[in-house]
Amino acid sequence: MSIVVEGLSRSFGGVRALDDVSFEVASGEVVALLGVNGAGKTTLTKILSTLLLPGGGSARIMGHDVVGEAKACRSVTGVVFGGDGGLYGRLSGRDNLRFFAMLAGLGRRGLRARVDDALERVGLGAAADRAVQTYSKGMRQRLHLAVGFIASPQVLLLDEPTVGLDVIEAQRLRDTVRDLRTSGLTVLLTSHLLVDVEQLADRVLLLQDGRIAEDLPLASFTGLAGYAALVVVRGRGPHPVPRDATVAVDGDTWELSLRVRRWDASVFAELGQELAGYEVSDLSVREVRLEDAFTKLATA
Ligand SMILES: Nc1ncnc2c1ncn2[C@@H]1O[C@H](COP(=O)(O)OP(=O)(O)OP(=O)(O)O)[C@@H](O)[C@H]1O
């Protein structure tokens, strides 16, 4: 096991941010930590990255205790927090990376090749010698990721890695993380963006009020939404009212959302019958997404 957490708790004054949390992450697994604001995700990530002491219980990274063997934990863990902080704006991307690599204990030997390789992997080869203050948000976040993996960690803690990035940059970052997975890295990922989770995670842990409310493979979690697809039909004039559907009316137009539990040919036949005689302008189908399951669980 790469991460073993047992009975972990942490309070801030009267607030129990983590309450008897236990879970394990196997080597090479990517686990997503989900939860609404204030559920305890950051507290957990900070304890695992040895930035915060637990109040009770224990956590081990590659067998090292986060309290008693913090240094050993840091040597096997890469940490990437979302946001802008932590980099030196006046230094180039290359010098930033070199600095953090040396902080992580890498010697000078072979460092240049390693830094070059990391910069290439995150697509910053061409911008390596520019000052980081001239980088876009996405470029900075990619540099953060390079800092996180330059020392070849066995475990990577990613806290909101795509926060504030546009869709293209966010996808680029996800692609880089996916590449890293192939080298057997264990990843604990926190994100509000369920698309990150859908694309990267094998398993989902749902934190609710500091406790683990669900621990499920990704596919089962998506299944919790209780339906397989959503059919959205738009039209004009009078509207139908089929079962399992909600209708939003705006003046003369309407939008009907129909939850489909299981796909088969009869769905289309029934839909055709339901819509016969009404004025339909548009019809679209989307598969159930993680956020549907998340919304359902988090508000249960
Ligand atoms: N330093 C602190 N002092 C006081 N309370 C804190 C502190 N850090 C966290 N808390 C509280 O602990 C609880 C868990 O916070 P935490 O930041 O871990 O949640 P989160 O799931 O990461 O939330 P978010 O998604 O908003 O980042 C919250 O009620 C929060 O207000």
Automatic annotation (TrEMBL):
It is a peripheral membrane protein. Residues 3-234 form the ABC transporter domain. SMART domains: AAA. InterPro entries: AAA+_ATPase, ABC_transporter-like_ATP-bd, ABC_transporter_ATP-binding, P-loop_NTPase. Gene3D superfamilies: P-loop containing nucleotide triphosphate hydrolases (3.40.50.300). The keyword GTP-binding does not apply. Its main location: membrane. GO terms for biological process: response to antibiotic. It comes from the Bacteria. Keywords: Antibiotic resistance, ATP-binding, Nucleotide-binding, Transport. GO terms for cellular component: plasma membrane. The keyword Transport applies. It is found in: Cell membrane. One of its GO terms (molecular function) is ATP binding. Belongs to the ABC transporter superfamily. PANTHER family: ABC TRANSPORTER ATP-BINDING PROTEIN, ABC TRANSPORTER ATP-BINDING PROTEIN NATA. This is ABC-2 type transport system ATP-binding protein.
